Every structure is written in C-alpha cells, then in structure tokens.
Amino acid sequence: MDIKEIMEILPHRYPFLMVDKIFDLVPGKSASGIKNITLNEPYFTGHFPGNPIMPGVLMVEAMAQVGACAILGEEKYQHQLAYLAGIDHVRFKRLAVPGDRLLITTELIKLRANIGKAKGKITVDDELVCEGEFLFAIAKS
Predict the structure, then answer these.
(1) 38, exposed or middle or buried, with CB in 10 Å at 0-12, 13-18, 19+?
(2) What tens digit of pLDDT does each residue of 115-135 get?
(3) Helices and strands (H and E) in the chain: how many
(4) What is the CA radius of gyration of the chain?
C-alpha cells in the first residue's frame, strides 16, 4: 500500500500519519510497514533540541497505525475506525534518530466483533527498537 491507499484506510493526516508504506498486508492477520525518519519531522524542534530522537509515544502510535491497517484491511471492517484502547508491555530498546528507517511489524492476536488485540515491534537494521501490545476498539465511522 502506498501513502494514498493508507490514507483511504486510516483517518490520520500530517503530522500524525506515522506510516509511509505498508509492504505486507494479510487482512485480519498481520501487516508490516515503514516509517522513514527525517530531520524535517516537526517534533524534532522541541524534543531534545540538538540531540534529535523520535519520541517513544510516536513509535507506539506508528505500531498502532500499522496494526489498525491489519484490522481495517479485512473486508468486514472496511470503512470503520480502529481506536487505540489499550497499551501493554511496551519496551524501548534503543533510540530512533533521523536517517533511521523503521520497519514496523504487527500480528493480530485476537480479532472479534468490535475488539482487536495486536502485538507489534519496530526494528532498524535488524536491531529491536521498540515492542508492545495494543488493544483496539473497532467502531463505525
């Protein structure tokens, strides 16, 4: 999925769209995407000025958005919204900095009715950056 296709599924727009590309999607099962970090990101002006690092909460949001693509890519959930309802077991293993290409992978653990649960991780050059689990509430848009 390119950025235009992602924007058809997710309601987010700049600067809150945290996914540049979805390169692997198995609707209702898993999704993998990419976020390229550049120094032009608006959060770098105020987050550790002079030592730019991507805020951890935005890495969590990026994982959640890729997980939402896995849910909303399934036909019965199309044209709905996946709201982040819970975050568990999040761990940050290294900093993400400008020039990094985040590889974001998510796998759905549970998907029933209006609830979804996913496990996600972010790597850079095969090194674990962040991981966690997410609960989604699925609602009509």
Answers:
(1) exposed
(2) 999 999 999 999 999 999 999
(3) 2, 6
(4) 14
- Closest to 70 measured CA to CA, from 136, 2, 4: 136
Q: How far is CA 85 from CA 23, 63, 136, in A?
A: 25, 14, 5
Cα three-residue angle 78-81-36, rounded to 5 degrees = 95
| Residue 65 dihedral angles phi and psi, to the nearest 5° | -65, -40
3.10.129.10, 3.40.50.1010, 1.10.3210.10, 3.30.300.30: which CATH number matches 3-140?
Answer: 3.10.129.10
Name, in order, each residue with C-beta under 8 angstroms of 29's C-beta and a sequence gap of 6 or more.
Answer: 70, 107, 108
What's at 126, amino acid-wise?
D
* Domain boundary assignment for the chain: 3-140
The residues assigned a catalytic role are 47
Which pTM was predicted?
Answer: 0.96
